[in-house]
Input
Amino acid sequence: MNYLGLKKLFKINQRVLIGSFAVMLAALFWSLDGVLIRPKFYILPAGLVVFLEHFFGFIILSPFLFLNWYKIKNLSKKSWGAILWVCIFGGLLGTLMITKAFFAAMDGETTFSTVIILQKLQPIFALILARIILKEKLSKKFYLWAFLAIIAAYFLAFGHINILEVNILHNAAIFALIAAFSFGSSTVFGKRIVNHLDFKMTSALRFGITSVLALVLILFTGDFFVISLVTPLQWKLLIVIVFTSGAGAIFIYYFGLKRISASTATICELFFPFSAVILDYILNKNVLNSVQIVSAIVLLIAFYYAVREGKMKSKIFEAKVIQGEGRGKKIGFPTANLDIVNLDISHGVYSVNVFIGEDKYKGLLHFGYKETFYGEISAEVFIKNFDKEIYKENVKIEIISRIREIKKFKDSGDLRKQIEKDLKYIN
Output
């Protein structure tokens, strides 16, 4: 069956289908890391491992950053705040906390159930924060399937859950909760970044800034000076991490996250326990019990329906019409420039409804870099069958659907032809 056949079978939007598979692929790489690679580094300080894998990853990803530096200059303070959050919480703090929690469990100080169950609150944090911060509103069916997927992932990982084994008073419980919050919030703020920045540059920024933060940490703690303890095998494994569970996985993950909601992405990340258990069965011959088999089937079904129901409800925002440069009018498509450039939506061209007073019009919203040249971000709307002056007035915009990515055109003629094609989506 070809790709189009899969799309028709799943009844899922092409963009969402690609994005969901990408996030699941990244989760597969993370499970490979947990089963095969990460245990080989337990004798090293966690901070040193975090630094090395991010530093090597940044070396590979850095060309994406330097080739498109002009895009960085136009990022808002809001976007920079999201980048720092992801680097501090997702790149550094979350990794350190979950490592400390597992170390405590390995040493017998607490149970693995304590660590796993509390850390698996990650999607709960992500769903709540996506609703609050990104204003993601999905259907009730989505949240039902998302909850079922989370429960199935628990039983798949354990085969059973003994709540009495959970020791919430141990330090490891605090570490696991911090890790869950850090990774969950990182998904949400990561979505905010890839809305406004290329996923390749987002990956490079995350690894570059996290490398600096981790270096400062290990210099302060003195862990940097035990780098001589890294064995030849571990150096080779670090290179493997770069192209799989490290830079490679994050690169694929942000590619997917750009195409789906943060809420959908956090459910797709639950492919991690599914693939980890399957790998454990294949590599270590650990047979799944009946509860795990049923949980695996339920999880796959929940994946399908959660992704299928993951389309966000229409988003509405208000903005004031401001003075523009009149480029749209010169090519026959006058637009109203808006005073808002920090929308939590992906750069692109959208089909919209425009409300002016009591009247409703169809239109096209352009949000992102100006299409005749890159370097400046704008939000402007073309209102169909409308020719009144609305300068300095407030308008309400309802986003209906995303039409396409932002493109760069060599001249106004090519831009005009593209707009004519875009208008077919609102006729």
